[in-house]
């Protein structure tokens, strides 16, 4: 393998960022950690490393995932490599008050223990600069309500892989309506058996086919939210 010949510390900044895109694509965790540290040592701002190297790299992964060139196992490796870089950057980002896209609470609904799709969405959202609070699997409505109260997110994401657990999404959304807080949150739903009609039927803002679509949809809704606030 010719990769062995590449010495990351000898690359220029531009080449190194390009190499990070390639290494993310290939899911090379240790290389991403090393490159992240090199850029920090060279005086790069954590936010610039996040956006130019990690987020941009994951954007490329997301496009190829959407187009069927990459598949879930490969994207999970990429997301894992990105997380390694994020682990180094997160405390530094927090202390520099870097701009955030927004905040998302995500979880698989009650009765459902599937989490690969949800994890992928969470990782891709993190990679796009969102704060993600993952509630895990099998969440009753109370878990969502507590998390919303505690975290004050912009987005609530719900996932289901079983047709029997899909209707529970409506239970959660109806509860938000009863409490008069439905309009305060962007509600995104996803999972293999769902479709656009189902998303509309349960009252979600959007159904997201996969993690790449979820990221684009979330960004779009956040942009619209900011625009409507600015117009007031």
From TrEMBL:
Entries under InterPro entries matching the protein: Cbl-bd_cap (IPR003759), Cobalamin-bd (IPR006158), Cobalamin-bd_sf (IPR036724), Met_Synthase/Corrinoid (IPR050554), Meth_synthase_dom (IPR036594)
Entry keyword Calcium: no
Regions annotated as coiled coil: none
Domain B12-binding intervals: 101-232
The keyword rRNA-binding belongs to this UniProt entry's keyword annotation: no
Domain B12-binding N-terminal: residue ranges: 7-101
Domain of life: Bacteria
Protein name from the UniProt record: Cobalamin-binding protein
Protein source organism: Pseudorhizobium endolithicum
